[in-house]
What does this fold into?
Amino acid sequence: MGDRGKQKKILFDGQEASIRWSRRRRTIGLTVTGEGKVIVAAPQGTPLARLIEALARHRDWIARKVAERQESWARLQEGGVFFLGQGYRLALLPEATAPVELADGEIRVKAAQESAAWGQLWEWYRQEAERLIRERVNHYAREMGLEVRRVEFREWKRRWGECHPQEALRFNWRLILLPPEILDYVAVHELAHLQAPGHTPRFWQRVKQILPDYAERRQWLNYYGTPFLFWRLGGRE
It folds into this structure.
């Protein structure tokens, strides 16, 4: 199994778990990533037997989380394209007049091959995201009595938005792939941080005042959102 503190992988219940050693850690921590990978964070020099014991002790929790992640990835239809929570057929139309068009259950891209379509589709997504997210942020800012200095857009693999009160609200353009009610939740979440920094009871109360069903929206995002952070035309990034 390799020297203690040097091994980076361990086999458990037929699947590989990655080990992340740390000189600063004092306890063993377990994580199942959004892609369904098991991570063991361990103090440097921890015997491998102890890591296996920790995995065995949390076997049911690990299996449940891995199954959840696999289910969320399974929702991404093979070969489909996504917009506002809906899956669409991809139609490649070299003769089309518009670079990208949504019509009749299809997202039509002016391209001859799928490999050439992603650039145009990405640009369209960015434009639609900026338009719609700004619209929803402005809508809820008025409702909450807030003034937003600036709205910016990013492409992250680990977050949907962030609030910098003296600078800007920043959003992941990939929110345009998610259902509208989830996009609204992220917009309200970041706006609420302008009134209540941190995830305090006061913060969540403010979110609830605007979106009484925020907990269900948050649960959907946590459960199903991750695959959309990695999706691209033709597979995962």
